[in-house]
User: What shape does this take?
Amino acid sequence: MAASAGGIEALSRVVAGLPPRFGAAVLVVLHVAPAGTSVLPEILTRAGGLPAHHAEDGERLRAGVIYVAPPDHHLLVGAGTAIVIAGPLESQHRPAADPLFRSVAAGYGANGAGVVLSGALDDGTAGLGAIKRAGGLTIVQDPDEALFPGMPRSAIDHVQPACIASLADIPDVLRKFVEAPVVTFGGAPLSAAGLLQRPIAEGPSGG
Assistant: This one.
């Protein structure tokens, strides 16, 4: 899941609706200042029934746990583990949504999902497009209810996601997706460095 301005409220509401035994790992990118301490894991833990913490490089991903990108680091996934890396800024941010979504597309294919929530500009659009091409589920918050509709509108305009939903409905969409039969994906794994190189063809550039 990815968000920027207005994202704390949006993320909290989605997390609050997820079941306590949610059957997948949840990875979260929120645009935060590079310096200082982020309390987003504590906020998300209090919001719902799933524990949240800042992801650590190399840790194994577990179902029912929320992994939050640390400040000034991108969060990727690879071979069932978290990859936390300081790479170049994307869409003027680090962490950014596009690297995470590209890694989900590369590693999980049709078993992966991407969610774009409230935020300005277009981060997440290119990565969500990668998830769609890989056969995964693409969800965008209804921009009419988003505090900042820029990110949702960009994703809708360029990706045509499978689902445009309210914050109240997104948790149920995710639950049904996770409970669906697993699809085997044979995509070749990509290196973290490769995933941080944003292909121009994947979507609009911008900040």
